[in-house]
Amino acid sequence: MRLNLSLFGHPRLGLTNGERVPLRSKKGTALLALLATAEKGERSRTWLQQKLWGSRDVHQAQASLRRELANLRKLVPLDLDWLVSDNHSVRIDLDLVDVDVRGPAKDAPQGEFLEGLDIPGEEDFEDWLREVRAQFSQTQASGRFDKGGRDDIAGGRLRGPVRAGADFSPFAQALVPVAEPAELRPVLAILPVRGLFTSQTEEPFLQAVTRLLVSSVTRLRWLPVLTASVADDSIYGAIGPEDAKAQANARYVLESELVRSGSQAILSFTLLEMPLRTVLWSDSEPVAPTFDIHEIEQVLFRAVNLLSARFDRCEQHRVMARKPDPANLADAVWRIRYHLQKFTREDMATAAQLLDQAFELDPHHAELAMLRANHVIWDHWLRRVPVEKCDGLVPLARAAVRADPADARGPLFMGVLETWRRNTEHAIRYLERSCELNPCFPAAFSHLGAAYYLNGKPERSIEPLERSLYLSPMDPFRFFILGELGTARLLLGEHAEALRIAREVQLTHPNYVLAHILETNALVGLGEMERARAAWSRLLADRPDLYEGMLAWIPFRETSWLQRLRQGCDLIAADWQKPRLAAG
């Protein structure tokens, strides 16, 4: 007895005798699809956890995967070992399971891949699903198959090893990436900014915008772009994305367009993954039809931050989906970046191990120096190590500055440490330098804004914090920037605005302690004492340690500013204790 798995149209699982096996779990169905579309039906546990439970911490994701596998095995009323797993990977046995996407062309089903399936909150899975659906649609429409259902292997576009005369469906071609040259690298090729104008006299302006775009991208020292010699040819030559890939071995291509029509103008960007030209990200911003270069520059800065975040995420996931290569330094760098951005204690521990291994390969690598400083600083913060013990981190931050003086991250690390040490004047100078080095760097502006109010100048915090928010509309840590802005507004006595910001943070992060502190203080400042008591009770009343722990890590240079931040909450806390003391 075998199993049939249908992934086109409404997902179905059944026995070859016609008996249906009900798929009641969305994530169970998604798990089967992730396995069935792997080249050999096998995925790593880490990759699966990242796709389906990326919003949870590591231990919860591991437990959820184990539970889902157990539930799937119980569905089949036969002693079939069709799902095989060990400590590192999970495999669907393709000798026991027939999958429609792997069938012959003449039997190719119709319908959308995983029709109607979505998993809210799991962006990694949604990105994967969107990409696979696009690949299947493009393969169907490409006309690469003859009437007999045989693969048209002309041009070497066939994916994976295929014997002569094999009968594969068009869908099977989309199971693994197109065969790529061994030298293909994670490089970004930037094409010239195109324009649709009534006059050719504005062509020099387009070239100036292109140069500004290239200059902005190259400030991101970790992101590999074209070398100057290749960039000159690519930017100002009449080439397309395929040519850019061929010239630069680029996996990613950025297209940009500036269009003016009457009284309106739009600057748009599209990040493509080659060779299928899969759209990974796109954005457009209105600009004044007068083409003010300063306004366009600000739009470019924002776009560069957004496209770099997408590039980073794609490469991290590409590397995490394959087996580690201990001798490959580039592989190690992307894995380290992945674990650092997960921002959990478990991932920090994994990042530390990978950093130790990477330094054995190249102890003088500039990017490793940046990642080491990044790791020790934020691991220190996650573990809430006392601020007075952070002096030992300074040499690592200085080593990052020396490793690449043009990298904005080095001064950022020094600025963060000096802020923690209450040397806020020094911190501000470092952070201003970080902003100068990379005007696309939202973290530099958010920490600069915080340093200003910690130095007793909350009025100077607003501009850099609002700029940070403008640069990072999709940043998963945007709530942190909002919290800093809310703190500055509260210290300025702008209670209504502080309350609005606190409520905005709570929409996405209801347990963020600072948001509750801001809400309580703002309501006290507005004279709404009953609502302030309710705000306090939602999180802080029974866990005063959360309140004290958060405030202990806010390094104001002068304690009088900390008292302002405590004033409203302390008033409510004292009032809260009165009925309890009376009852006691």
How would you characterize this protein structure?
With 584 residues, the chain is of the alpha/beta class. Among the domains are: 3-143 and 168-175, no CATH class; 185-313, Rossmann fold, CATH 3.40.50; 476-584, Alpha Horseshoe (Serine Threonine Protein Phosphatase 5, Tetratricopeptide repeat), CATH 1.25.40.10. It is built from 22 helices and 12 strands. It has helices at 26-36, 45-53, 58-75, 123-141, 203-218, 228-236, 241-248, 293-320, 329-342, 345-361, 366-382, 394-403, 409-420, 424-437, 442-454, 462-471, 478-491, 495-508, 513-525, 529-539, 544-552, 559-583, and strands at 3-6, 12-15, 20-21, 42-44, 83-85, 89-92, 97-99, 185-190, 194-196, 250-261, 264-273, 278-287. The strands form 3 sheets. Strands 8, 9, 10, 11 and 12 form a 5-stranded mixed β-sheet that branches. Strands 3-2-1-7 form a 4-stranded mixed β-sheet, with no helix packed on it. Strand 1 (3-6) and strand 2 (12-15) form a beta hairpin. Helix 13 (409-420) runs parallel beside helix 15, helix 15 (442-454) packs antiparallel against helix 16 and helix 20 crosses helix 22. The N and C termini lie far apart (70 Å). Residues 142-183, 227-239 and 579-584 have low confidence and may be disordered.
